[in-house]
Amino acid sequence: MLIAVLSGFILAAASPWLARSVGDKAGWLLALLPAALFVYFLGFVPTVNESGAQVIHYPWIPALDVNLSFLVDGLSLLFALLISGIGTFIIIYAGGYLHGHPHLPRFYAIMFAFMASMLGLVLSNNLITLFVFWELTSITSYLLMGFNHEDKNARWCALQGLLVTVAGGLALMAGLIMIGVAAGSFELNEILTDGDVLRDHPWYIGIVLLVLAGCFTKSAQVPTHFWLPNAMVAPTPVSAFLHSATMVKAGVYLLARLNPGLGGTDLWLYALGIVGALTMFTGSFMALRSTGVKAVLAYTTIMALGTLVMLIGIGTEGAIIAAMAFLLAHALYKAALFMLAGALDHETGTKDMLKMGGLRQLMPITFLASCVAALSLAGLPPLFGFIGKELMFAATAGAPGLAFFTTVLAVASAMMIAGMAAVFAIRPFTGTLKETPKKPHEAPPSMLAGPVVLAGLGLLFGLMGFIPAAAIVQSAVAAVHGAPVEVQLYLWHGINLPLMLSILAIAGGVVLFLRWERVLAFYRERLGFIDRFGAERGYEKAMEGLVWIAEWQTRVLQSGYLRRYLTITVLSTVVLTGWTFFGHTGSSVPLGEVGFTFYEFAVAALVVAGAIVASVTSSRIGAAATLGMVGFGVALIYVMFSAPDLGITQIMIETLTVILLVLVLFRLPGFLKLSSPTDRIKDAATACSLGALMTILILAVNGVTVTDPISDQLTAWSYTEAQGRNIVNVILVDFRALDTLGELFVVGLAAIGVYAMIRFRAEDRRQ
Amino acid sequence: MEPVMAVVVGALFAASVYMMLRRSIVKLVIGLILLSNAANLLIFTVSGLTRGAPPLIPEGLEVPPDAWADPLPQALILTAIVIGFGVLAFAVVLIHRAYEVVGEDDMDQMRSTDT
Questions:
Q1: What is the 3-state secondary structure (H, E, C) of A132-170?
Q2: Are B40 and A732 inside 8 Å of each other by CB?
Q3: Tens digits of per-residue pLDDT, A543-573?
Q4: I need a labelling partner for A713 at 20 to 30 A (CA). Which of A419, A743, B19, B114 fits?
Q5: The complex's ipTM?
Q6: Least CB-CB distance to A643: which of B54, B82, B86?
Q7: Which residues in chain B have Cβ-Cβ distances shorter than 8 Å to A746?
Q8: Could you tell me the fold of the domain covering A565-711?
Q9: A690 CB within 8 Å of a chain B CB
Q10: Are residues B81 and A709, on separate chains, in Cβ contact within 8 Å?
């Protein structure tokens, strides 16, 4: 199993080389991997149907409860089969569609990485691993969407998709971790055995909202649906894959996967039911006004995603059956339709349906496959799409609390979708042949294999609904529902409410198809405001706001003035440290022993006075002299308190410092008062706050011993081990010899720097 | 004596920060000198002040006779003093050089790397 999931990544690394060396027909060869995976997953079908879910476990980071464990049940198997099955055709198709494209090898590489991430996502049993694969799909799909990276619009759209899905991913990560902590396990099969643990947990609402934020952005639910149509900038094989079986379905997958643990509450019902129904309606509504072959399909994908989310939210047994049947039907016809749209685009050179016409004679196979797939999209018998839609109507009519709302929106959407399906299947192919940028002819076999097979499957499953029902849908429904369910799929349910609604929807669709020109005109004239106030404007505004904040904070924080950085650093230190300190100890500070002799106090007073004078004097010689006073005062303090070595060193260094200052300072201009009095008062306040903080901290720290000092040990070793009577010296040259060596390097480097600068100056002068 | 030293260290920190906030680059260097002294005294004070008991071992003994000053902070400070001087010497020559090239002591006039 591990090999199955990771093989895509391995092939991703090898595929550019393979594609280059094999040449034109590489697509057929590379498609063997997904085909093999499809067969491999097919082998799981009988096992899962007989003995239920399988968990395959590989420890990865057991200490953190992160494992490469895989859960194979009906749901993950359904997705794995769709990914590998449709993936096979997509790879073959890409070989034809991107024939001769200079970056085709790169395309294969990203595509395989994407496919492997998607497989990992749907098969993961561990929440953390699942999230890793989730983010991998975001990144790889970003690369795929921006595949034509020389196109500015493609980059922009790809980035938009990435930002929206990754922002949701961040929320999802928090949600998944909360699930793991609340349930006490990161393994899905353990979490989902008892859903009440999560539902009764105080974090339940937070978990649901975070998980929904992740799933809704990924699956393009209102109001974050806008990125999906923009993702159309990707080459058509990518769109076909992204929309039918992968990426956008990831959100739906996760909702379905977590349904046994999180579903069944009012929050779940209303959040998913309402958002899903609105998304379904928005997608259909926008599809109706689209004239581009790919745009229509993109909006119908939004419709489908909304439908699936709504059905999972409704959560009744019938709704889950409808969701799984609809999912399968959608994957089949959407992949087929996208590949056909790509074929149309590829052969005619335009994406606009208004510019196509009369292609029936020239592209007969494309026409036939389009008709079959579009019938499934429209939900007409005897296609599998009809079964999905009937079940959906039955589910919405029986939805607790939302029956009227969801049913009305579902029927309205179905009308518009039926109309657009008819437009897609009929308009480009009938009427008079129109002038197109390229001379149209039938697409090559590599581009027709997928659509024909997938559209045919839609027909087969429609006529013989028991095949998918027994093979996979039943076990998938059981996984989502959390209990075994008997599923039977067939076309004729008798004359009942869903059938009536279907007839109504199809009748409406026919009207819309016949009046499509007028519908388009109506959208243009009356509904232009959608573009001005739509959700995408919100995204643009948010991005502008982000850039504005970034500029603002850069201006404020990264001003380029040292003193401003310093002020911010000092004040943050004072506030944060002070806050923590007073929060812990209260405002009383122990004063300790205050005993001191007169000369000690005099030296201390001299140091303070020297520091003050040095900082306010306007005389350079005065500054140098008072600095010397401070330095020698400090040396005296060292001597008085038992540190003779420090005293000696300080006196030597201080002498050198004063000499250096006097030598250099007088080559520089005199002190000027550059800042205003207000600035000086502010700076003085900043400086004093830090001084006060340091004083208080020293008083507080005084006498606190956290652990035994190691000095006692060093003292004991000083003579016995190192034969030295000056313990400080022994520490420096013996116990901490490497530190001293480092110190020598620093001083040496400083000396080289000083020498170099003086030397260059001398050379400058000579020139 | 520690409370007095605490005030001294606080005053040195305040003076050094005040000087580093000035626009003149020479004052920045003075601030650095004061900061180095302040940090050293901070370590010295916090480790406890002991009068008249340097960490030296008299002839004939293997450890100092009775309570002695902590040698470890002294060793650290000794390193810090020397390194502080190295940095200072470098900084002083650097600003001198910068002044020669730019002809300006005001840091506000030195905002780009090309001046």
A1: HHHHHHHHHHHHHHCCCCCCHHHHHHHHHHHHHHHHHHH
A2: no
A3: 889 899 988 888 877 777 788 888 989 999 9
A4: A743
A5: 0.93
A6: B54
A7: 83, 86-87
A8: Four Helix Bundle (Hemerythrin (Met), subunit A) (1.20.120)
A9: yes
A10: no
